[in-house]
Amino acid sequence: MASKIYFIVFFTTIIMSIATVPSTKINDDMGEVHTLPQGTKFDITAKAGDTFTIKIRGNPTTGFGWFLENRDNLDNSVIQPLNLNEHGSSRDYITDEHPEGMVGVGGYYYFKFKGMKAGANVTLRFVNKRPWETSAIRSVDVNVNLI
User: Could you tell me which of 21, 19, 18, 47 has the C-alpha nearest to residue 32?
Assistant: First the structure.
């Protein structure tokens, strides 16, 4: 009986450590924030020289996250991603408010950019996938018109 109790405590501890994703406080200026509703294509306008943020709903406790798929093809003289990690996801993720100890809570990814060249149009392609997989379960294209 004691071994069953130890197993349950051990298993619960492991699950809680995997399922808990810390919130990130965003301390610096996010500029204008564009929250993406459900859908696959969006157009936004941003001012060259200004910072803007794209906010996407997600839940990394499921194993899936949002990534900027075309980050390697972006021209930094036109647009600059400001907060990507080594996998192309945002370093800024904030969980929804929830009771202490609750796990598996969703939240938002905040992708921050700086528009550099007025008159340019850029498409940002975000994909929802597991970091180790190549295929995505969802994708979103955001067409950015820099003025």
Answer: 47
